[in-house]
Predict the structure.
Amino acid sequence: MKPDFLKGVRFADLTWAGAGPFSTKIFSDFGAEVIKIESSVRLDSVRTGGPFKDRRFGVNRSGYFASRNTGKKSVVLDLKSEEGRALVFDIIRKSDVISNNFGPGAMDRLGLGYDAVRAVKPDIIYLSMPMYGEDGPRAEMLGVGMTISAVTGLMWSTAYGPGDPVGPGTHYPDHAANPYHAAFAVLAALRRKRLTGEGMKIDLSQVESTINFIGTAFVAQAMTGEEPPQASNASGEMAPHGIYRCKGEDAWCAITVGSDAAWAEMARLMGEPRLADDTRFASTAARIGNREALDGIVTTWTSACEAGEVAERLRQAGIPAARVANSRHLVENDVQLAGRGYWQRVEHPELGNSLYASPPYQVDGERVELSRPPLLGEHTREVLSLLLGLDEARLDALETSGVFK
């Protein structure tokens, strides 16, 4: 059974690429009607970004697009045409939320700015997700997830060492920080609307919400004026603490030792119980001070063992550890994900029977049942007919005049 606690909520969704569509997918997966308004002339960038089914390009064959747009309806309209914009306004009149993640001024240039939308739908919830927000000294700067990782300091704080800003790419801005901050804000706005009947504008700066991921470092610098050290996977409070190479190609295990007792137990498992009494490692402070030597000793042990074996032995001893899993392992061998029904197969006209990741949370004890992502423009006539009441003759005329593109 698909949880539908958001049934009856409708989005006019103009988001594209990563963070925006992921935000509205949270709602479509749980019963909201999300009408994705797009164009065949200026395609959503992830429709043209791989990986593609069977490595063959197609606007309906991108796994990237599919994973971020499950359960939505696709309507194609020419927003530069007067009739196209009029139809968008008609959809907005029937919607609770309009969402976009364009740069400042883009919606105004389309005639869809907040004031124009509120004029036809006074109780609308208007979600805007520019990189730096809609105003301020940097508002005109544009960027994507990778840019946001850089300007927020996320790349700097996750570097392997000084001057090595490798970073997590787009993952945290596009798939965690911004989508869930946006979803929380919209849920709060929907509740407020239910209580007061009033809509509101949500101006979500993606830079500001992403900074939350390095909140402690940000506050520390504000208080001390000094940049926190680039510590890689190391901890200032625990040791050993990091990712350690294991036996095999690109095999690793994450290990966290939080106490002297845990270190003594790990030393015993490593076959080196005397290390617990070694003055270099006898206390947390000593282990942190001799981290390089300590990590070398741990790596000597882990590199001779399988990652899964290391993790299991340490966990059995009460020491937090986990193998660093690649995608194949997560899909085929991760018992917890399988037990929770995290991976789901969904049929699609062009993608076939494909595997999708479901939301990592449940509602009322139920896991969402995913619905397939839409083909480009698949629901144009359906939405305009059922939602707006247009008859076949009118739809044919609009299609002939090129509004559906």
Observations:
- The mean pLDDT is 94.
- The first strand starts at residue 10 and ends at 13.
